[in-house]
């Protein structure tokens, strides 16, 4: 199996028509058909169902196409990065940040003070990873498949309430006592939302979510204006919580999350990437001690 086979399969899948795909690829229709047959023989399954003059991706083909798209996207990204290194003497670090985005300016700024030739590609949207974007490192609150992990920190999740809220007279709260409260939450799919949803796994009720936003700053603003309560990470959000929000410790269950530094398993790292790994570990150690 080689690059051309995968590329030809990708284009054929797009058209689901051998003649059109052959025209785009500037090869003959028989040559393309033979390439697809050889690929199917190597895999031991048919990737297309034949319907007269047309072909349609079957379930095997759809699954394989997903991985082919990811592989070719990662390859193209790698080619682009190597060309940049060659032409501009610049090394690129691709960093996927699922949590702690407010720390990014300080994190990358301090590292570039040490290594000014470094350029960062920063991704904060999970959809880009699902589309096959490769990364060198990822900061996440869950372990990623086919990755190795280092723990950056463990942090407690607190409850943020408006200063005008009756709960603000307390310092602690039990999750079971919040059944009738109005919650402000990040949207489903956000890493913090996944974590906080799990807190309710053993309660007899679901939180009454009255506002959802994909922007953490909006969530904090809605708390400040007295529209509800929400979960607040004790370390990573520490410097962005205003005096208008009272933070309460959740006594039961104890609400925690782990922040990981993830990186694809088995990959060799450049000297700069090794330096970045050591730097980010120290950076988060300092954050936790502030």
UniProtKB/TrEMBL annotation:
InterPro entries: HTH-type_LysR_regulators (IPR050950), LysR_HTH_N (IPR000847), LysR_subst-bd (IPR005119), WH-like_DNA-bd_sf (IPR036388), WH_DNA-bd_sf (IPR036390). It comes from the Bacteria. Keywords: DNA-binding, Transcription, Transcription regulation. PANTHER family: HTH-TYPE TRANSCRIPTIONAL REGULATOR BSDA, HTH-TYPE TRANSCRIPTIONAL REGULATOR YBHD. GO terms for cellular component: cytosol. This is LysR family transcriptional regulator. Belongs to the LysR transcriptional regulatory family. Pfam families: HTH_1 (PF00126), LysR_substrate (PF03466). The keyword Transcription applies. The lineage of its organism: Bacteria, Bacillati, Bacillota, Bacilli, Bacillales. SUPFAM superfamilies: Periplasmic binding protein-like II, Winged helix' DNA-binding domain. Residues 1-58 form the HTH lysR-type domain. GO terms for molecular function: DNA binding; DNA-binding transcription factor activity. PROSITE patterns: HTH_LYSR (PS50931).
